[in-house]
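Re: [ENG-882] Designed sequences occasionally contain unexpected residues at chain ends

Forwarding the minimal case from QA. Structure tokens:
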């Protein structure tokens, strides 16, 4: 038996709403929940994204309360964010089911020490992928879609300031005009830190 009904109720979705999200008829959702049919592989992937849980949890192989594994997709350092091709990813970290239900996430390794002592070289940060951020959030910001940095966001009347925690590094200021024209965008917001004990 699968856990689709339980996951759907936790997500506060009706069968019709879930069917619309999946691009199927409500009858298909009903059949899945009764265990009469199972979603195909593509639909299981879609359901795992909708519910922010593993395919195993959907199929009843894992508990929906088991940790959700996310990929360490690469690293971020001043001026550069390097992604590992999906087929070469070999490192994953667990996040709680509660966190996983709050959005889409990836993990990145920190290179450099502009945010020291808060973040140290080789730390792993959990990033909620989102384009909006609030004052004082630690963000991964992109300039022209390529150049990246991990900094604290300060919003000012005439622009934004991306602040380094380490006093040996300069903060970066962008005018409102530069934010629009370059553009400067937020890739995501740091929500958790993972540090290995050395």
């Amino acid at each position: 038996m699968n856990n689709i009904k339980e996951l759907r109720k936790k997500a506060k979705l009706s069968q019709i709403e879930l069917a619309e999200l999946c691009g199927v008829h409500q009858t298909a959702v009903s059949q899945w929940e009764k265990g009469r049919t199972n979603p195909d592989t593509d639909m299981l992937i879609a359901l795992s994204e909708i519910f922010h849980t593993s395919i195993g949890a959907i199929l009843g192989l894992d508990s929906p309360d088991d940790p959700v594994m996310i990929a360490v997709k690469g690293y971020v350092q001043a001026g550069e964010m390097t992604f590992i091709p999906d087929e070469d990813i070999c490192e994953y970290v667990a996040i709680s089911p509660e966190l996983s239900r709050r959005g889409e996430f990836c993990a990145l390794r920190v290179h450099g020490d502009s945010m020291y002592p808060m973040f140290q070289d080789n730390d792993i940060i959990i990033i909620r992928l989102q384009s909006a951020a609030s004052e004082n959030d630690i963000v991964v910001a992109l300039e022209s879609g390529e150049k990246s940095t991990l900094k604290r966001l300060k919003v000012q009347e005439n622009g934004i300031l991306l602040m380094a925690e380490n006093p040996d590094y300069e903060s970066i200021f962008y005018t409102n005009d530069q934010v629009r024209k370059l553009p400067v965008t937020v890739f995501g917001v740091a929500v958790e830190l993972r540090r290995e004990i050395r």
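QA comment: On inspection the terminal residues look reasonable. Residues 41-51 form the longest helix (11 residues). Proposing we downgrade this to a documentation issue.
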